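Hi Q.,

Before the meeting this afternoon, I wanted you to have the iron/sulfur cluster prediction in hand. No need to reply - just skim if you have a minute. The sequence and ligand are here:
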Amino acid sequence: MMLSGSRRTVLKGIARGLTLAGMGGAAALLVKRADGQVVWQIDAAKCLNSRFGEVGVKACNLCTSECVVSQSAVRAVNEFSKCGRCNICPAYFNVKSAVGRDGLPSEKLCPRDAIARKPIGDADPNDLANNFYEYVIDEKKCDGCGKCVMACKEPAGLGSVQLRVRHDLCVNCNKCAISTSCPKDALVSIGLGEALNPFREGGRAE
Ligand code: SF4
Ligand code: SF4
Ligand code: SF4
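Predicted structure with the ligand bound:
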């Protein structure tokens, strides 16, 4: 961690102010930044939690602990076009927990209860396993700990959940504090237009 205590305090103050500004402020900030600005983003193909081939290892939570923003400017997002809408989603359930009477794992995976599970359409009570579910991440609760991202990865999941720097929260540090700690050099500085495309092709280790 390269920042002095006073700089961290100032940046946290700015970040809180931005959060309080709400969606209107966030939208204005994005417009202001759209003028060719370069921003920080996570390369999913490099991040330990989303890159293929990293299985059976603990999720990396440095995006939570190292970001200068309170609760982190990094949050998990689920791209619905890639999500399998599984009955037993390994990012939602702790699949190692005991199975309940309903046939589902009894515990959730997210330590902040930031993922909601909603049936799509009318659930068939006689064939619950064949229903489809939408998994929605509450970004206000999420702190980017990466557990769900690690769990969603193939072969257990389809890799639809990834970590992203949210540009309405990020204070765009000159040298991103996470980048100095990331073990996979996954923080990249790219144009805002590209960063706003939340799911560039990727996810496979090079
Ligand atoms: S620090 Fe790097 S490896 Fe760890 S979660 Fe963040 S981007 Fe992924
Ligand atoms: S990144 Fe962590 S806090 Fe956020 S939804 Fe996933 S498990 Fe929950
Ligand atoms: S640049 Fe990095 S450390 Fe700074 S607020 Fe953004 S994500 Fe956090």
